[in-house]
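Reply to dn_fold:

You asked what the input looked like. This is it:
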Amino acid sequence: MGMWTRSELERIAASDDLYIAPFREDHKTYGTPTWIWSVIVDGHLYVRAYNGEASRWYQAAIRQGAGRITVAGTTRDVSFAGARGAINDQVDEAYRLKYGKSPYLAPMIDERVRVTTINILPAD
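and this is what came back:
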């Protein structure tokens, strides 16, 4: 797996337009892009599923482990890895800083959604 460049992370952090499209069951066809919130923590890109573990994109991302994102005018093939444990406190804080004025913030830092935290890494 690759790493994001500083420039890419800065553009992603400043953007509010991340679309995620995990692979479908055939591992070749991308799913329908879904708009989601994203945050950067310690040089890593994280997302969460607003509808919790029942979110279709989340289920596909965990099952397939790869797909594509479009953000800040760029489309990249990526891999997905679940993120559990202490990192979630930092992800919560990043959501508070980036989306603190939104009425949708509270559900995004609720335990039901915290379990869906995914680290997105660029594909090699």
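Residues 6-56+65-122 form a domain with the Pnp Oxidase; Chain A fold (CATH 2.30.110.10).
Hope that clears it up.
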